[in-house]
Amino acid sequence: MRPSMELSRSRKDFHATTIGSSYFHASIDERWLLKTKGDEVSSCLDGRSIFLVGMMGSGKTTVGKILSEALGYSFVDSDKYVEQVMGGASVDRIFSQCGESFFRDYESEALRRLSLMPQQVVATGGGAVIRPINWEYMKQGVTVYLDVPLDALAKRIAAVGTESRPLLRFESGDAYTKVFVGLFTLSKKRGPSYASADVTVSVLDLARSLSVEDISDITPTAIAIEVLVQIEKYLRGDNVSTRMLP
Ligand SMILES: Nc1ncnc2c1ncn2[C@@H]1O[C@H](COP(=O)(O)OP(=O)(O)O)[C@@H](O)[C@H]1O
Ligand SMILES: O=C(O)C1=C[C@@H](OP(=O)(O)O)[C@@H](O)[C@H](O)C1
Ligand SMILES: [Mg+2]
């Protein structure tokens, strides 16, 4: 067990240490802090599941997997769940052959079933927030909004392609610009819905608090730790554990 002074380190120090020493690979320090915070928050959650919401590319799937390990929870990606129910048909194929409304019906049923299970971290699809019934299901747990600037989302998605994101499909032209325009249009419609989440983690605010210039230097693990810090704050009604805060 590390000396307790590790836990007295301020959030800025702790984040900066881990980000300073590791851009894309979680440092030992980061992994240890993640597990320590995960154990603390898991006991506060008392079995309640976590539903991650946010735009396409915001990191729901990536951060969700890290969170589930830290909490000792199962991880489920609701898109993958729907694909399994549909006999392995891809999201893209469901959209093209059955239409978006059909997909949304299966997405709602997936969220209804998942809301009945304890100790899950659920990475929802970016459009889960548009149906009120989905919020009824997700509010059985704790909802967390990953708020990431459109520029970063467009860069991430342009880098991996829109295979599983038919709503951002584009025929030709500059990938980044096409994706940015698509995300911008969707974000205008959905912005208020995301704000209904119990907890919001703004990656921009996190970067600013750590004096990190480029938000792509904020690792998925650092974001997962911030999610845990904010969940604890939410569950304890702002009497957040001071052990990792200034
Ligand atoms: N903090 C991060 N920094 C850099 N790239 C990230 C980060 N989080 C996610 N990504 C990348 O962005 C892309 C989308 O992430 P993903 O988890 O699939 O998002 P979502 O499930 O919200 O659509 C993936 O290629 C992933 O590796
Ligand atoms: O925003 C959306 O409407 C969608 C987001 C996708 O999930 P990700 O947010 O994981 O990309 C997937 O559910 C589908 O392409 C629709
Ligand atoms: Mg996803």
Task: Please tell me about this protein's structure.
The chain is of the alpha/beta class and 246 residues long. Helices cover 56% and strands 9% of the residues. The protein has twelve helices and five strands. The two termini are 22 Å apart. The structure holds adenosine-5'-diphosphate, shikimate-3-phosphate and magnesium ion.
- Count of individual beta strands: 5
CATH class: Alpha Beta
Count of DSSP helices? 12
Give the cofactors and ligands. Answer: adenosine-5'-diphosphate, shikimate-3-phosphate, magnesium ion
Shape-level CATH architecture: 3-Layer(aba) Sandwich
> Which outline best applies?
globular
Q: What would the average pLDDT be, to the nearest integer?
A: 88
Helix content: 55-70%
Radius of gyration, taken over Cα atoms and rounded to an integer in Å: 18 Å
Oligomer: single chain
Number of domains: 1
Low-pLDDT ranges? 1-9, 17-25, 239-246
The major β-sheet equals: 5 strands, parallel
Notable characteristics:
binds shikimate-3-phosphate; alpha/beta; five-stranded parallel sheet; 9% strand; disordered N terminus; 56% helix; binds adenosine-5'-diphosphate; globular; binds magnesium ion; 246 residues; Rossmann fold
Quick structural overview:
Pathway: Metabolic intermediate biosynthesis; chorismate biosynthesis; chorismate from D-erythrose 4-phosphate and phosphoenolpyruvate: step 5/7. The protein is an alpha/beta fold and 246 residues long.
